[in-house]
Amino acid sequence: VTGSALLPFVTKLERHVAIGSFDREAILALPHRVEQFNPGSYLFREDSTADSVCALVSGFACAHKIVGLGARQILAVYMAGDGIGLENAFLELTDHSIQALSLVHAAFIPAEAVRSLFASHPGAARALWVETLIDAAIQREWTANIGQRSARARIAHVLCEIGIRQEAAGLGVRNHYELPLTQEQLGDATGLTAVHVNRVLQGLRSEGIVQRENRVVTVTDWDELTKEGDFLVNYLHPAGAAA
Amino acid sequence: VTGSALLPFVTKLERHVAIGSFDREAILALPHRVEQFNPGSYLFREDSTADSVCALVSGFACAHKIVGLGARQILAVYMAGDGIGLENAFLELTDHSIQALSLVHAAFIPAEAVRSLFASHPGAARALWVETLIDAAIQREWTANIGQRSARARIAHVLCEIGIRQEAAGLGVRNHYELPLTQEQLGDATGLTAVHVNRVLQGLRSEGIVQRENRVVTVTDWDELTKEGDFLVNYLHPAGAAA
DNA sequence: CGGGCCGTTGAGCGGGCTCAAGACATGTGG
DNA sequence: CCACATGTCTTGAGCCCGCTCAACGGCCCG
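Structure tokens for the assembled complex are given below, as produced in the milestone run.
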């Protein structure tokens, strides 16, 4: 079972909670189907029914919702190992869309299978709950980021977060990683316009703090970036869960 | 057990999921201690350990975090029946504070008791998970609200949400309810300054859409308010959870 | 009667937006 | 191989929404 497409997902869960082998095997044995998506294509659509839950096998995706007349808010960025749309297991309708940012491979698990797992394997249920609790903590930080910080701080903060998360996921190091977002998408994630994102990035680059070429971020001064972005890791709950 | 302080909480859970009597009784039988808080006092503090979970018995509270040098973002508003800090059951450190907005009675449940309940009563676990999933959906909407909407729309949107939630909780009707937030706190919730909140509220009042006196909101034109606030209820998941 | 807290008002400023155009890279079809 | 379209990044100029700073009035409470 070690070759399961769900392995990155389970590995991520285990970074936050210890999972006994009974539960671990049950998660890995979940029925699933791996699908491939091109950049821009949708894994889930807002305001529709979704009868499956998803684990990202490779690539990057984002959650977003459309507001008013076309304005778009990116709510989260997902990378390999992340669980996506766990709420589909229990909620009737989706309240946001999931879109591929790069070439994506995603494993879809029937919602029904997640519901039975949840009922029969408390340890697995706990792991899934912890996952959603941490996602919620990240969402809170994004709310605060957009609500209270300056444009420069918002972008610096996002760059710090993605760096830390990729390092934790073993996809790169915090000061050198891939980030396949256009400046417009970075703007949609931070509540800024693409034009202003461009100017802020130029500022950060000219001050030797961070640069980005071909969708690859290189942080040249990590400490300064965290300072600019008012970044404190605690909200990512790196320590994980209690016994 | 019908007189339990946890009854409003269980009632709220049951609005979203059906709970069998086995699980229902177990939740009501959770050990808890009810405490009283004056407006402004803290139920939980950011960056500290919390070994209990909380159910709001009466009054209003909010979640917030401090950003940078003193700026404050209000992340959520809670009312009677809401669960607060469920993440304390499994996460080591709090990432935000909980503060009373009015006179509050809150029931504190030891984290350990929630963990055993979660392990022994899958139906109760499911109900708690659904609760956090819906809270997360609300948090996403707040992110989008602050990130993409104008000042006027942000405030209109919040007023709609609180109205609907109070009506659902049986605490008032959507167009007439108590909202014990100062204009400054309303600003902290929407990423605006108190001065600007004041001007926006005056605008809404002068157009005969909504008025607020002594912390009581009266919506004189509900349809117009939802239009101004670009408000669509779906994110509150009123239908609840799937079988 | 004094001191907070809250709501209100005015005047001026500025961060980020809007609109518009151009550079460059990639891909596509003829 | 070129013509053309598309998407992204870049730059400039002007403007406006919401902020800042400051003052005042009403209310509650000691």
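Chain B has a mean pLDDT of 96. Helices of chain B lie at 7-16, 21-28, 111-120, 122-148, 151-169, 183-190, 194-206, 222-228. Further analysis is deferred to the final report.
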